[in-house]
Amino acid sequence: MSTYVPRPQDITRKWYVLDASGQTLGRLASAAARVLSGKNNPQYTPYIDTGDHVIVVNAAKVRLTGLKSQQKMYRRYTGFPGGMREESFLRLIERRPDRVVEQAILGMLPKTRMGRQMGSKLKVYRGETHPHDAQKPVGMTLAE
Known about the structure:
- This protein has a 4-stranded parallel sheet, covered by helices on one side.
- It has one domain: CATH 3.90.1180.10.
- The chain is built from 5 helices and 6 strands, in the order E-H-E-H-E-E-H-H-H-E-E.
- The longest helix has 13 residues.
- By secondary structure, the chain is an alpha/beta fold.
């Protein structure tokens, strides 16, 4: 019995558009991470990047459930002593809504070279428009 391994020329990458308006952040992120990693593809192989491209629009209209919008904090480290920076969800969604969605999706991908390669196929935009019309992206809906 032979094992099927997709060759790089056999992998066709599709483009999907995901509208984030009114969607819960975690559910949106898990659906996007699944497509980026290729787990929705019948050719899925754990050690080969078979994922598709994902465009997320309306990142500013994403929502959180419960009290998370008031309590959630984003932390980053500058690399200098005492360089821990904290920012609340409400402030970050006002300032950089694309970063909120991007961090949620990238956090669900593997922390390896292949995970970074998968993350490079993610494009997040604050508003309704995106510059990827030439790729003919297909609309994607979340399972309710």
